[in-house]
């Protein structure tokens, strides 16, 4: 009975962490085979971090940071400034259009 309770607790914890349902105990307890994020989610995490940094540096209250105007490098395929401007434009369009009714 005690083993069953610990298994249920572990299953709940794994579900909360967000592991895939087909994950075995070997993958969890293995020392060499670490769980790795797929490349797409790593790229997404990188982009989110750069966008957050851009948001922080957009209108800083600190005069020293404002005078420097830092430049964020991201690479040749994806530019932080372009993505940031697209996001701002999307928010402006949403604000102009307002709430629309969908469905019933």
Order of H and E elements = HHHHH
Largest sheet: none
Unreliable stretches, pLDDT < 50, 5 or more residues? none
> What is the number of E strands?
0
* Alpha carbon gyration radius: 22 Å
- Name the overall outline: extended
Mean pLDDT reading: 75
Percent of sequence in beta strands: under 5%
Q: Give me the secondary-structure category.
A: mainly alpha
- Count of runs of 4 or more consecutive helical residues: 5
Instruction: State the share of residues found in helices, binned by percent.
Output: 55-70%
Q: Termini, distance in Å?
A: 50 Å
Protein name: Polyprotein
Organism: Plakobranchus ocellatus
Structure write-up:
This protein is an all-alpha fold and 104 residues long. Helices cover 62% and strands 0% of the residues. The chain contains five helices and no strands. It has helices spanning 2-17, 25-29, 39-58, 63-68, 80-97. Helix 3 crosses helix 5 (80-97). The chain is extended, with a radius of gyration of 22 Å. It starts with a helix and ends in a 7-residue tail after the last helix. The model has no long low-confidence stretch (mean pLDDT 75). This is Polyprotein.
Please describe the structure with a list of short key phrases separated by commas or semicolons:
104 residues; 5 helices; 62% helix; extended; Polyprotein
Secondary structure layout:
Blueprint: H1 2-17, H2 25-29, H3 39-58, H4 63-68, H5 80-97
Helix pairs in contact: 3-5
